[in-house]
Specification:
Structural class: mainly beta
Oligomer: single chain
CATH class of the largest domain: Mainly Beta
CATH architecture of the largest domain: Sandwich
Length: 377
Amino acid sequence: MGPLSNIFELKDGIKTKRISSYDRTGGNDDKIVIKAGETAEIANISGAGIIKHIWITISTPDNFIRRNAIIRMYWDGEENPSVESPLGDFFGQGWGEEYNFASLPLAAAPAAGKALNSYFPMPFGDGARITIENQSEHNIDSFYYYVDYEEHPSIPDTAGRFHAWWNRELTEVHPEDGEAEWGLVGEVGKNKSDKDNYLFADIEGKGHFVGVNYYVDSPGPMWYGEGDDMFLVDGEDWPGSLHGTGTEDFFNSSWCPNEEYIHPYFGYAKVPDKLGWMGRTHCYRFLLEDPIYFDKSLRASIEHGHNNNLTLDISTVSYWYQTEPHKPFPELPGKDQRQNMPEINFMDVHRWRHEWRKAMGNGKKLWGNEIKEKKDK
C-alpha cells in the first residue's frame, strides 16, 4: 500500500485545517517573534484529529538555534511531552548545522536546509499542543510555520500516539582495552550484554518503533561503525529478538561507507571530508515498511565500536508510536550540555604524531607507519 494507493477515496466527516504564522492584519508580516528564554505555543487544537504536516523556517542571530530551540508535543491533555527534542535534530539536522536532508517522513529543504518539514502522521483523541522553547540568548526574530491537520469525529482506539526522544552521550572506552577497533592496537574483546551500549530508546507500553536519526562525531580517523544494534522486546534478555551485525548494516549500507546517499527510508545525509571517518556523520533509518512491534516495552541500543571500545559523541532522535501514558523522558540536558565537542583538526593530528615519534625513540626518519614491536627488534 503506497502513499497514493487510496488517494482517490472520498471520505465523510473529515475537515482539513491549518494553523500558521500568517499576518492577522492582512499584511505580509507572516511571522511570530519568540523572545530569548520564552516558550511559544504554535498549535493548540481541541477535539480529535491527525496532524499531517509541519513546516518551519526561522531567522535569528544565533547560529546554533537548531540546538538551542526545543520542540515539544503533547497529546490528549498530557503533562509530560510525547515529543521533546532540539529543533534541528528532530527534523534531521545535527550539531546545530544547516544542510539539506531528504527522507519520506522528514526533510530539511532549500534554501540550504532552512525549511524544516515533517510528514509523520500524529493522531490525537482529545487535543494537541505544540510548543517551541527558545533557550538562546537571542530572540528568534522570524519564526514562520504551518501546522496542517485534519479534524475527525473520533480517532480509533488502535491509534498509537507519536513520540520522539532526543538523547546524547560522550561514550567511554574500556580502560583495559583502549580504542582497539579491528584489533589495530590490541585484542578486541567480546560483548555479551547491552549494558554499556549507547541507548536510543527506552519505552514502556504497547507500540511500534519507526525510526532513528543518528548523529555521530568521531574524534579519530578509525571507522566508528563496528557496533551492533540490539533491540530487546518486552523485557527479554540479551541477545534479544533483533540483534544486528554492525552500524552500517542497521542503516542498510555496507563496508564502512563515507559517502552521501539519500533514500526515502535510509541513508547518509552528511559525511566528513577529513582523514578516514574523522568528524560528523548523520545516518538515518525509518522502519516504515518494517516497524519493530512491542507489547510491553522496548529497549533499543547500539554499540559504540565493537564491544563499546570507541569514544564518540553520539546524539539520536528516535521515533515511535505507542499507547499512553508513556514513560516520562529523562530531563533534557541543559543548553550548555548540548554544545558540540571541539573539532579535531590537522594541528591535533600533528600533535599525535609528535607524541608517537617520542614513543618510537625520536628517530630522525620515522615516516609514521612503523610498528613499535618491529622497531624494537
